[in-house]
Amino acid sequence: MRLHVADHPLVAHKLSVLRDAKTPSPTFRQLVDELVTLLAYEATRDVRTHEVEVVTPVATTTGVKLADPNPIVVPILRAGLGMLEGMTRLVPTAEVGFLGLQRDEETLEAITYANRLPDDLTGRQCFLLDPMLATGNTLVASIDYLLQRGARDVTAVCLIAAPEGLKVVEEFVGDRADVQIVVAAVDERLNEKAYIVPGLGDAGDRLYGIV
Ligand SMILES: O=P(O)(O)OC[C@H]1O[C@H](OP(=O)(O)OP(=O)(O)O)[C@H](O)[C@@H]1O
Ligand SMILES: O=c1cc[nH]c(=O)[nH]1
Ligand SMILES: [Mg+2]
Q1: Whose CA is closest to atom 5 on ligand 2?
Q2: pLDDT at 89 exceeding the cut of 90
Q3: Which UniProt keywords apply (predicted)?
Q4: Residues with catalytic annotation?
Q5: Whose CB among 17, 75, 134, 172 lies 3.0–4.6 Å from 84's, allowing a Cys bridge?
Q6: What's this model's pTM, rounded to 2 decimal places?
Q7: Strand-strand pairing, 60-66 and 110-116
Q8: C-beta atoms surrounding 149 within 10 Å
Q9: What is the CATH number of domain 2-48+66-208?
Q10: To the nearest whole number, what is the mean pLDDT of the chain?
């Protein structure tokens, strides 16, 4: 598993405002969107392309276009939905699948309530979106769904990860697939309720309210 921590003052600035408990929901949503665009730039560094001929008003040159099959982007509901538009703005030809998982706050198990993925992901570049990687249980379950469908090239774009969760994901992945995690920050630890410290609280609640 490869880990990429985005090291950029704009990322650090936006993340600091996002963490602030006083930041209201509309600003929070806007910042998540802006952060994803910055992270997506890093996450798509290895996106597959092929050469094309381009005729400019001056000359003919060689350019590149995204190769087929298109990448697939999968937001993990709810909170991952707040990252979808920022990602598809950068990769508009991507297909979009959906996973809905909710962490049981007692057992910390990830419970799946929605799964709408293509049956065959062989040879596809897959991008999972979820702002928080805490225990890692949600990301492990999500990566597993992709691997079961034949995917071997998976990038997870997260805003904040806990070291404990990164270890869990790394142990699960082993050498089964090429998995990259792109994050804005790796925080200190999990607290007794498995919330990321210092983190930003419950990302889904801060995006969409408490349900
Ligand atoms: O690494 P883990 O310990 O599994 O926790 C991380 C998960 O928790 C949050 O979702 P949550 O279950 O709160 O669902 P929500 O997006 O609907 O709020 C977050 O968006 C991740 O999906
Ligand atoms: O800190 C955390 C942990 C899990 N889910 C969140 O939204 N935040
Ligand atoms: Mg939540």
Answers
A1: 202
A2: yes
A3: Allosteric enzyme, Glycosyltransferase, GTP-binding, Magnesium, Nucleotide-binding, Transferase
A4: 103, 107, 202, 205
A5: 75
A6: 0.97
A7: unpaired
A8: 17
A9: 3.40.50.2020
A10: 97
Q: Would you say 73 and 84 are in contact if contact means Cβ atoms under 8 Å apart?
A: yes
Ligand 2 lined by 101 (C-beta under 6 Å):
no
Which bound ligand lies closest to the C-alpha atom of 103?
A: 1
Q: Which atom of ligand 1 is nearest to the CA of 130?
A: 20
Q: Within 6 Å (CB) of ligand 1, which residues are found?
A: 76, 78-79, 101-103, 108, 110, 130-138, 165, 194, 202-204
- pLDDT class for 211, splitting at 50, 70, 90? confident
For the record, the structure tokens of 194 come out as 């498995």
Q: pLDDT tens digit string along 56-72?
A: 999 999 999 999 999 99
The tokens describing 22, both together, are 């006083």
> Is the CB of 199 inside a 6 Å radius of any atom of ligand 2?
yes
Burial class for 62, CB neighbours closer than 10 Å (0-12, 13-18, 19+):
exposed
Bridge partners, residue 54, by sequence: 61
Å from CA of 3 to ligand 1 middle? 20
